[in-house]
Amino acid sequence: MEQELSRRTLLFGHSGLTGQDDVIRPPWALTPEDFAKKCTGCGECVSACPEKILKIDTHNLAKVDFSQGECTFCRDCVASCRDGALVMLDPETPWLLDISIEGKCLAMKGVECRACDDQCEPRAIRFKLTPAAVAMPQLNEQECTGCGACISVCPSEAIVLKPAIQKEGE
């Protein structure tokens, strides 16, 4: 069965075709294909974001840039979106993101650092104390809200947030 793609989705929005798999769209964004069809790049969500973490990308679509700070889930972006690209279907689930801590983490290299632990309010990142060794980060993916507070404070850029890969039937 062939899937029909709109011209805009084909050119800009279908992640499998554009290499946009790791782009994080604003909270409560529609599926990547539907978001690409609805988002006009007007910038209203960018202007409404008090944390200044939303930007318009090269495909003229809104995206999140956690290097500037964290998402507080204030919902201002959703309220400002007149195009219907941001819709709060489930107030408790703004997005589905996967988090990981890569090997370039300073603690994993034997250097004491707990910057991410200090910023992680839901306590998804904790450090396990080990006698006579540097404490190692322990990640609880289920506790992670995807706020991104840990991203900008990580001196080695070891923390990665990306859209979760949805399995058939989910």
Helix and strand topology:
Elements: H1 7-13, H2 15-18, H3 32-38, H4 44-48, E1 54-56, E2 62-64, H5 76-80, E3 97-101, H6 115-119, E4 125-128, E5 136-139, H7 149-153, E6 159-163
Helix pairs in contact: 1-3
Strand fraction:
5-15%
Give the proportion of residues in helices: 10-25%
Largest sheet, if any? 2 strands, antiparallel
N- to C-terminal distance: 20 Å
Shape: elongated
In the CATH hierarchy, the architecture of the largest domain is 2-Layer Sandwich
Q: Please, what is the average pLDDT?
A: 88
Radius of gyration: 18 Å
Class from helix and strand fractions = alpha+beta
Q: Biggest sheet, strands in spatial order?
A: 1-2
Order of helices and strands: HHHHEEHEHEEHE
| Secondary structure tally: strands | 6
Broad CATH class of the largest domain: Alpha Beta
Residue stretches low in confidence (pLDDT < 50, at least 5 long) are 1-19
**Helical region count?**
7
CATH topology of the largest domain: Alpha-Beta Plaits
Whole-number total of structural domains:
2
